[in-house]
TrEMBL record:
UniProt-listed PANTHER family: ADENOSINE 5'-MONOPHOSPHORAMIDASE HNT1 (PTHR46648:SF1), HIT FAMILY PROTEIN 1 (PTHR46648)
Superkingdom assignment: Bacteria
Spans annotated as Disordered: 152-171
Annotated motif Histidine triad motif, positions: 111-115
Protein name, entry field: HIT domain-containing protein
Listed transmembrane segments: none
Domain HIT: 12-126
Amino acid sequence: MISHEPAGYRCPFCVLIAGGATDISGPDDVVARTDVAVAFIAPSWKPHNPGSVLVVSAVHVENLYTLPTVVGHGVHDLVQQVAVAIRRSYGCAGISTRQHNEPAGDQSVWHYHVHVSPRFDGDDLYRSLQSSTHPTREERTRFADLLRDQLRRASHQPAVASGDGPGRDGG
């Protein structure tokens, strides 16, 4: 097994999954939960991609290499639901997903997770990967409320349509 998780590691995602809070996120950030996956508003965003979401395995698995198949399928089912909800409610032009493994792959939290980011024309997401903003609790709550509402209504809507959400600058 390939592992970079340090001894005694306190996983921030496991804290959140268990209903706890960290310095930068808490239970109010959770927007969806299944038996195998949890989605929450990311504690940091790229400058022009507000409201990004992390979808994580509900059990602690460090990386893709040891991810049980049923968990991987469940995580990606929730990734798809979150992507559709973002597309419908944020007013964005598209979605990007990313998943990283090991330090050389830019993994920085030792718990399997997928980034789901709203995309806007000319947002320069991949040019701004080294810079992040840390939204306030109020900013995260605004996006969490939008997504929770959209996910509740999701089973009653047809194919993806762009919404009139907050847009590129979060406002």
